[in-house]
Amino acid sequence: MCSIIDDIEIAADWLCKDEIVGIPTETVYGLAGNMFSEQAVNKIFTVKQRPTFNPLIVHIAKGEALSRLAHSIPTQAYQLAEAFWPGPLTLILPKNPSVLPLITANKPTVAVRMPAHSLLQNLLNILPFPLVAPSANPFTRISPTSAGQVAQYFDGQIPAVLEGGNCEKGIESTIVGFEQGQVVIYRLGAIPVEKIESIVGKVSIAQLSKSVHIPQEGLMAPGMFYKHYAPTTTALWVDNLQAFIEAHPHKRIGVLSFQETAPITGITQEVLSAMGNFDEASHRLYAALDRLDKAQLDYIITTGVPDQQLGRSINDRLSRAFKRQHQ
Ligand code: AMP
Ligand code: MG
What we know:
The protein is an alpha/beta fold. Helix content is 29%, strand content 20%. Helix 1 crosses helix 5. Magnesium ion binds at residues 134-135, 143, 223.
């Protein structure tokens, strides 16, 4: 049984006993453990079926913790932390020896972020250690944005998930690294590129891998695997919704759209934001995808969202979940 709890003391008890617990963040739910406990970190990899070459993000409550985890921190990292912490920004920095190699997949760098969810901040503040937490989904599956979904994914495998409501952002953190003075975005996320650039000027965006599951040499963030965040139903990114629906009259089709309703009545559909608001669309993205996945459809189709601001991050996730289909 995995209980949904709202008492941070109970969560802290489990965590102090090297157990792993589902936690809310403003991005998506995480699967958390004591960063200094080899046993807890191993459990995260096992339960998530996550390959050990895929490193974890360390979650801290206060800025002071940063200097214990990382060294040679560039000025731009401080500027970005100042602007976006607490919030959905993950910094990749040279690691200190206290960080277990298992967490960083033997990389010389560690990923750190300070989450903005108040319940998680309260939990971190009563714990004597930071938490490592990847998203609380089995490897390659849709990231959870509610406690119920975490309990469903890991029932019988973790003791508890902390109820923190539906995640405000609904999409993972933006991951930023530093290479020879240059700021590099390794994963598009809840903070749009434009906002990062408003603080540190022009950034580069790391080349996305087209591989499925297998990391390519030099690939910095495995969240960049081509197939990721995927529903189990066949999901296709089409050029024209109506043409696809008309060409498949005997199939059960669900539509995931940004603002517009599907051109054919009676079809299962999820509109991400009727008002065309990117924040609302990212907040609803994974839950909408999950509902479609559970609707016993033959196909889920989409044409993506406008490719700007947060829309770019949403399209990044959609392009990993949906296969391109040219009609
Ligand atoms: P998740 O929390 O499941 O979204 O996964 C965390 C993401 O952070 C993964 O894509 C990791 O690869 C990435 N990450 C963690 N540590 C590092 C690191 N040292 N360098 C690059 N990416 C990292
Ligand atoms: Mg993930």
